[in-house]
């Protein structure tokens, strides 16, 4: 086992506070929801026996671990508390075990390191809650996810991914998963950190839910011709905003609205006119009065339970 066939791919060091239902279930502390994800980026299965953490948490892949071999392209979770983890994130994950000896992750950052059975360091990341590291994972509902495996020691190799992005609302789940199959391998489909609603695996600034809405490719970075576009016509005496975008015609379980604001604080919904409806896509294009010098627009998407 080397750093080429095992990587630390996610760090959830400061989860959001438990909600009432979680507290009622006995999960009263944020630390209950901490986790690490390990990933095998190679083309062959890796034997995990003897892999042991020497910094950050206490855990070893020994006889008491639930998983001792990780197939090519697969991932596993080491959770602070497995029951708490599954109550928040679901039961579809491969959980190898839980943090031992009452260890947990440091909210301010620390070194996480592990050695193989030969005593060689194969995992070594020192994260922080301060820039240049992403700060959203510091108790704001996100966690660190690795985007550049060959540069895992650098802050620039890590992004923030939302907790909510790895919890799939049932009403929209099946059509969404069917859509994902067009773009991702079976191994990637097993990784909500790649295929969750708010994940952005191609790093083009559009998360998977937005790509799904517009019908664009979530695996390839590109400027979607269907994305929301706002243009202001400055030549007319009565200036107007030209608003255009298109969406996939049928999106079960997905609700959307276009909103505007003058201060980024208070938002109001814009009533969109009827679209030009094609067989598989709805096209929207209309003019809005430019009543103020500054105006902001956003497309709000919600996946229904």
Euclidean distance between termini CA atoms: 42 Å
Q: Give the helix level as a range of percent.
A: 10-25%
**Major beta sheet, specifics?**
6 strands, mixed
CATH architecture label of the largest domain = Sandwich
Structural class: alpha+beta
Q: How are the strands of the largest sheet arranged? A: 7-6-2-1-10-11
CATH superfamily of the largest domain: Lamin Tail domain
3D structure, described in words:
By secondary structure, the chain is α+β, with helices and mostly antiparallel strands. It has three domains: 7-162, Lamin Tail domain (Immunoglobulin-like), CATH 2.60.40; 166-214, no CATH class; 229-303, Immunoglobulin-like (Sandwich), CATH 2.60.40. It has six helices and 18 strands. It has helices at 20-24, 82-89, 170-180, 186-189, 192-195, 208-214, and strands spanning 7-12, 35-39, 46-47, 52-55, 69-70, 75-79, 95-98, 111-115, 121-126, 142-146, 158-162, 229-233, 240-248, 254-261, 268-270, 276-277, 281-289, 296-303. The strands form five sheets. The chain has a six-stranded mixed beta sheet with strand order 7-6-2-1-10-11, with no helix packed on it. A four-stranded antiparallel beta sheet has the order 12-13-17-16. Strands 4-8-9 form a three-stranded antiparallel beta sheet, with no helix packed on it. Helix 2 links the parallel strand 6 and strand 7 (95-98). The model has no long low-confidence stretch (mean pLDDT 88).
Features:
six-stranded mixed β-sheet; 6 helices; 305 residues; four-stranded antiparallel β-sheet; Immunoglobulin-like; elongated; alpha+beta; 13% helix; 18 strands
